[in-house]
Amino acid sequence: MKPENQRLLVETLNDSDRVLDVGGWHAPLNRADSVIDIMPFETRNRQGAILADIWPDERFTRESYMQRDICDTPWPFADKEFDFVLCSHTLEDVRDPIAVCREINRVAKAGYLEVPSRLVESTKGVERPFYCGYYHHRWLCEVNGSEISFMFKPAMLHAYRRFYFRKRWYQKINPRYDAAGFFWEGSFIFKERILIDRDQVQEDLLRFKAQYQNTSDVFVGKYGWFRNNNPQLPSP
To answer: At 83, phi and psi to the nearest 5?
Structure first.
């Protein structure tokens, strides 16, 4: 979770708030009253709890930890049962983030969502030299205000240099762009960007790369290339 938003989270939550952590097995929020995740309670906290210095003790219990596929909806919670929902670095993993977002909107009055940025997921060598982003992530996520969109992560992204960023370029701008998150109240907008045609997918990948280059001279052909005319950024 982005450090600046961790601070805001501490300021946002009151002691009386009912809090749900969606997908909190890997790095739970100890302040949460309930957690829902497909992985078991006994193996939780592999990375270390979020804000453990503020909330060192788990508020949720074995009984309030629900082991469940979060894409299996509806969840067994009442409408607006929770004052706040945290869902951090989970939506990019699951098979149906739209269903999960729908349930978050239903069961909570407010919350915070965070996903890996599309930029890091479009960078080759972040985790391994042969693919972009993280191997287990299914979606390219983009955040615009209180709106989040999902596009499937296409195989062609990993294969062609014209679509991806190089790791050494990304490292020069990281960690500013490593994740995207937003607080919301009442509800938030979510959607899947459905691209069927191969040419549409290619055009979208090229569009995204171009927006980080500020290019004035772009040629897109069968193999495609970019010329970087922005002196502020190194060439991807």
So the answer is: -75, -30
Q: Per residue in 109-125, pLDDT tens?
A: 999 999 999 999 999 99
pTM of the model: 0.88
Residue pointed to by tokens 């300021």: 11
Which architecture characterizes domain 3-117+130-156+174-195 according to CATH? 3-Layer(aba) Sandwich (3.40)
Choose among 90, 175, 100: nearest CA to 139: 90
| Per-residue model confidence as pLDDT tens digits over 123-159 | 999 999 999 999 999 999 999 999 999 999 999 999 9
- Distance CA(133)–CA(74), nearest Å, equals 31
Q: How far apart are CA 98 and CA 191, in angstroms?
A: 7
